[in-house]
Design goal:
462 residues; mainly alpha; two-stranded antiparallel sheet; 14 helices
């Protein structure tokens, strides 16, 4: 049975189980490996293209029911000065409730009354039954122009408005040459321009690592086999197609570590800035070095964590002592954006910060408990944490995703956080204000409105 057939079967079983009084989770398919059955490409493409408008309309309605998607600038710009940071709480509270009232309730009360804001629930992939990488239009257009590669899928499109994603292209800062500022000079690094832009700045090892990170390789949906999701056979994708200039463009896919398909969760591309400071990598995998992370991504992660699929579609196996080490060394050169209000130990300089920002710092390191997982100076603790958000809602099927407990997720750095919307591992929080409301509720912090506002003001200076 194909993954699509299995998911249709699951949906039927879920409906039947409700009537029978059993748990839908008991009827999830026992899938470890993906289907490798040959299918007629033309027939699949025609059917997927036919289904696409309904799929995107479903996702649009889901997002609009959860969020205020309007363009509301904070007046502050991201580090490259090309896009404004969005402001305001975008998650819609449930009818008849407010975030203030919800913050006074217990998790059990919120769960039993069905009052957990839908925008704080796990966010499904736009096409969860299939999954795979989905690129924003700005990236699709840029790569088509620069390299004549097509990153557009015929079965699904990117789902968030452009103003709620990172600036494009983002600036690139190097630990080895902080005096140069943005070494990308406002351009997106591609296989066509990287040498011209960085000659005389990188070492030969770093330059070779960058070349490899910009070289296309086969991926689950972007390849030359008949079960791809692009119209023409493709060379594939590059590491920096998602991690543009070693940052992020908000490309999303599904985590490779969980089975079956309905239980996998959406993953928003994380920034690679400051990777040299991180001791664990991958939201679930807890890989212990940049080399491990690079090798795992190339071998299986881009193929839904399935080496059988990877072998079929033509994976690239980089040599550990040469290619992987060079790719890792280049990644380890990438710095955080400048934070002019921070001192040498990552705290606010009182002479440069506003009273509101200083209050936010006090909340961050005190009542807000943020520094428990995000200590200065790099605002991460190299640990995995489980917030146990499932305390607030009942397991349920939403857009082909089984919304249930997700387990521990690694801590992500907050340095340069204003540049990295949307937030959380799956992008469920569209703004920093959303993220503060989320943690205020989930952690039971009882923050006041001035404290929430100050906390956001502080994080925008990191």
């Amino acid at each position: 049975m194909s993954p699509r057939s299995c998911l249709t079967f699951v949906a039927v079983l879920a409906a039947v189980s409700v009537l029978a009084g059993s748990s839908p989770a008991q009827n999830l398919p026992k899938e470890t490996y993906m289907s490798v059955l040959a299918q007629d490409f033309k027939a699949v493409m025609e059917q997927d293209a036919k289904d696409k408008p309904a799929i995107m309309e479903r996702q649009k309605k889901l997002l609009e029911s959860r969020y205020d998607l309007s363009d509301k600038s904070s007046g502050e710009m991201m580090s490259g000065g090309r896009k404004a940071v969005q402001a305001g709480v975008r998650v819609k509270p449930p009818s008849g409730a407010s975030f203030e009232k919800l913050a006074e309730m217990t998790p059990e009360e919120i769960r039993d009354k069905g009052l957990f804001p839908a925008g704080f629930l796990p966010l499904p992939h736009a096409k969860h039954a299939t999954g795979g990488q989905v690129f924003p239009k700005v990236q699709i257009d840029a790569i088509a122009k620069a390299e004549k590669r097509d990153l557009a899928r015929f079965d699904v499109d990117f789902d968030l408005p452009d103003h709620l994603t990172p600036e494009f292209p983002p600036p690139l800062f190097l630990t080895t040459r902080p005096d140069l500022g943005d070494v990308s000079k406002g351009q997106q690094l591609t296989i066509k321009n990287y040498y011209e832009l960085l000659e005389g700045i990188l070492t030969p090892v770093q330059m070779e690592g960058l070349r490899l990170l910009l070289t296309p390789f086969p991926q689950q949906q972007f390849n030359q086999t008949s079960d791809r999701k692009v119209m023409e056979p493709s060379l594939g994708v590059t590491c920096l197609d998602c991690h543009v200039n070693f940052h992020t463009n908000a490309t999303f896919h599904l985590n490779p570590d969980t089975r079956p398909q309905p239980v996998r969760f959406r993953i928003d591309t994380v920034s690679l800035r400051g990777l040299f400071n991180q001791q664990i990598h991958g939201s679930k995998r807890s890989l212990r070095s940049v080399e491990d992370f690079t090798e795992f991504e190339q071998r299986t992660a881009y193929f839904d964590g399935d080496q059988v699929i990877a072998a079929k579609k033509g994976l690239f196996l980089p040599e550990r002592s040469a290619q992987v080490s060079m790719m890792a060394q280049m990644q380890n050169m990438v710095d955080f954006p400048p934070a002019p209000k921070l001192d040498g130990v990552g705290r606010l300089d009182p002479k440069k910060a506003s009273k509101q920002e200083l209050l936010g710092e006090e909340v961050f390191f005190g009542k807000g408990k943020c520094a428990t997982c995000h200590p200065a100076p790099f605002y991460l603790d190299d640990k995995m944490h489980d917030l146990k958000v499932e305390r607030f809602y009942k397991p349920q099927m939403i857009s082909d995703q089984w919304i249930t407990a997700e387990g521990p997720i690694k801590t992500f750095t907050l340095r340069g956080i204003k540049d990295s919307p949307p937030y959380m591992h799956d992008g469920r929080c569209l703004t920093l204000e959303d993220t503060v409301e989320f943690f205020n509720m989930v952690q039971g912090l009882k923050l006041t409105e001035p404290e929430k506002t100050a906390l956001v003001a502080f994080m925008r200076q990191l």
